[in-house]
């Protein structure tokens, strides 16, 4: 803290709950809090992990710096014998996208999920020691969303017992894979399997890309970086790459063969495992992206909340201090729903992690029954949480006024690094449409006696939900979780049923689906918001120790669902789930809740336990010492290295001279 002064101390004194206990709720457990707290400090106190100049560095220097940090991080992980959990916390607090993300986050999971036991035995030890570095090479120049449209071919050659990997067209060039451009030695490459002239769909193949001796591409391989991306610093630390194959040969046993096998004589044998498992790595990463959404949103909210308490505009009485902008109701109505959403996403992320672990255990025992539920939840929640988070970060920037636009606020880089999450790992609309298909299938099976399960179970009460009438009579009734849940269930069910009815009028269901796709996406949003609301309410049913902690979470949960109800009141009214009077009462209650959040706002963002290093924001400093630090930072800009700028003699002086002579 600057000279030991805490400019936010008075705010911190207003807290009505035990912040330390809230930190543990946020972290998930004492154990994860301890690891996260220790590793965040380890990173913050190590100058090798400084990120001060990231937005100023030219690409080559930026990238080299990332290589340095990644290699240093790996050394620290080994020297300190960090566990996998500690290592991934270290990666989180280093806060810089790097090739290692794809190696650990996709290459290894792809081999684990789609490789046979022998393949795992052969490749995983090399990958775990980083003796090979891998990427996930699926997307091509011409196709990303449409995985079945990929053009790269893997043709089996029975003469040599090899696959020939080939890029037949320009659009078949692999394009986007992270870590591919400059680093990876290997990739899991997705290609159309062809044996004996017949196509057998998309499969993953382990392909060596670069020589281990001198890092040069192997014969037949063209490889490079695809160029600068949005923003300074941001995702430009990653070498997203382009890759072309000219009849590159790999041994047959490098096709990932858990889902299907190709025999020595070129026969394709389907195992009992469903073919959708080829998409399994995406399910895994989508689940991690939901957890990450709460991190990115909480970070932006932490910056905007602290700064809103520091910043004062207007409202001085008799020469007294002006009003803190956090006290304006408009500021609260924009900021507090985002604060509540950060907590909501945290809890739904925790639940999704549980769901994913459960599915993985079942898959290992060859029980594939919950795979569609895992697909629907990860796809839908990935879309919902990343869209809200990306928009939320931008809203936080606006909440910080002009200073939010400075790189030193940390918000521009956070936005630039985060926003591709709406696209990668499945474009958000494309994923919503996947969920829409599953919802429509569920509605169509309602009469058949097949009861919907998991997060679709509420559809099993469709008769009741179609007749439901909300009985809220006064504003406080909206604090009753049972009432809220039913209103959200009825809204989601009615929107789905309405789409299903419209769909049934089309002779060609695919045409109908395309025509109604915008309505379907709205129904999916309603369904996914219901999941988040219900998981928040479930969280509140747990035993949560600590003075006032549960009460604060109840307030945040109320803010979350009442804000949604207010924002989407068109849906609730159009489906007759609430009356205009009830919608208005919901908004009255929401204002009451905002005033309950207000004294706790700073403590609620302190509970994220973010270090100043991690936040990387002058506006979000823990001590609130914003103005002197902003002033100081301005002078560090390279433009201020000299009083007279480079280019003065060439461009400014002749201009001024010309104006002078024109006047004379
Ligand atoms: C600093 C250094 C430190 C060092 C530290 C070291 C330690 C570090 C430790 C840990 C670090 C870890 C960090 C991890 C971070 C990870 C970050 C990752 C960053 C993200 C990068 C982004 C990567 C990518 O983008 S990869 C490419 C993703 N691509 C997509 O998502 C494509 C989207 N398209 C699709 O998914 C599909 O094509 C489709 C589903 C849209 C359509 O496909 P289709 O035509 O085949 O499908 P159908 O519509 O016909 O459906 C068929 C059938 O299948 C079902 N289905 C579809 N998808 C799935 C699925 N995924 N799972 C299960 N089932 C699925 C569908 O419902 C249909 O079912 P039916 O029953 O109806 O037949
Ligand atoms: C930063 C970043 C990192 C990435 N890393 C990797 C990686 O490591 N490995 C990898 O393989 N890939 C990677 N990708 C690629 C990424 O997965 C794809 O870009 C993503 O899946 C979207 O596909 P697309 O680019 O084909 O979008 P498109 O499908 O071309 O989308 C364009 C527009 O069309 C719309 N659209 C498309 N299909 C439909 C439809 N059926 N109905 C309605 N609308 C539709 C979309 O909503 C969107 O608005 C990365 C991408 C980015 C941006």
From TrEMBL:
<keyword id="KW-0560">Oxidoreductase</keyword>
<feature type="active site" description="Proton acceptor">
    <location>
        <position position="425"/>
    </location>
</feature>
<comment type="similarity">
    <text>Belongs to the acyl-CoA oxidase family.</text>
</comment>
<feature type="domain" description="Acyl-CoA oxidase C-terminal">
    <location>
        <begin position="481"/>
        <end position="657"/>
    </location>
</feature>
<dbReference type="Pfam" id="PF01756">
    <property type="entry name" value="ACOX"/>
</dbReference>
<dbReference type="InterPro" id="IPR002655">
    <property type="entry name" value="Acyl-CoA_oxidase_C"/>
</dbReference>
<dbReference type="GO" id="GO:0016491">
    <property type="term" value="F:oxidoreductase activity"/>
</dbReference>
<dbReference type="InterPro" id="IPR009100">
    <property type="entry name" value="AcylCoA_DH/oxidase_NM_dom_sf"/>
</dbReference>
<protein>
    <recommendedName>
        <fullName>Acyl-coenzyme A oxidase</fullName>
    </recommendedName>
</protein>
<dbReference type="InterPro" id="IPR055060">
    <property type="entry name" value="ACOX_C_alpha1"/>
</dbReference>
<feature type="domain" description="Acyl-coenzyme A oxidase N-terminal">
    <location>
        <begin position="18"/>
        <end position="133"/>
    </location>
</feature>
<dbReference type="InterPro" id="IPR046373">
    <property type="entry name" value="Acyl-CoA_Oxase/DH_mid-dom_sf"/>
</dbReference>
<dbReference type="Pfam" id="PF14749">
    <property type="entry name" value="Acyl-CoA_ox_N"/>
</dbReference>
<dbReference type="InterPro" id="IPR029320">
    <property type="entry name" value="Acyl-CoA_ox_N"/>
</dbReference>
<keyword id="KW-0276">Fatty acid metabolism</keyword>
<dbReference type="InterPro" id="IPR037069">
    <property type="entry name" value="AcylCoA_DH/ox_N_sf"/>
</dbReference>
<dbReference type="InterPro" id="IPR036250">
    <property type="entry name" value="AcylCo_DH-like_C"/>
</dbReference>
<keyword id="KW-0274">FAD</keyword>
<dbReference type="GO" id="GO:0006631">
    <property type="term" value="P:fatty acid metabolic process"/>
</dbReference>
<feature type="binding site">
    <location>
        <position position="178"/>
    </location>
    <ligand>
        <name>FAD</name>
    </ligand>
</feature>
<keyword id="KW-0576">Peroxisome</keyword>
<keyword id="KW-0285">Flavoprotein</keyword>
<keyword id="KW-0443">Lipid metabolism</keyword>
<dbReference type="Pfam" id="PF22924">
    <property type="entry name" value="ACOX_C_alpha1"/>
</dbReference>
<dbReference type="GO" id="GO:0005777">
    <property type="term" value="C:peroxisome"/>
</dbReference>
<feature type="binding site">
    <location>
        <position position="139"/>
    </location>
    <ligand>
        <name>FAD</name>
    </ligand>
</feature>
<dbReference type="InterPro" id="IPR012258">
    <property type="entry name" value="Acyl-CoA_oxidase"/>
</dbReference>
<feature type="domain" description="Acyl-CoA oxidase C-alpha1">
    <location>
        <begin position="279"/>
        <end position="440"/>
    </location>
</feature>
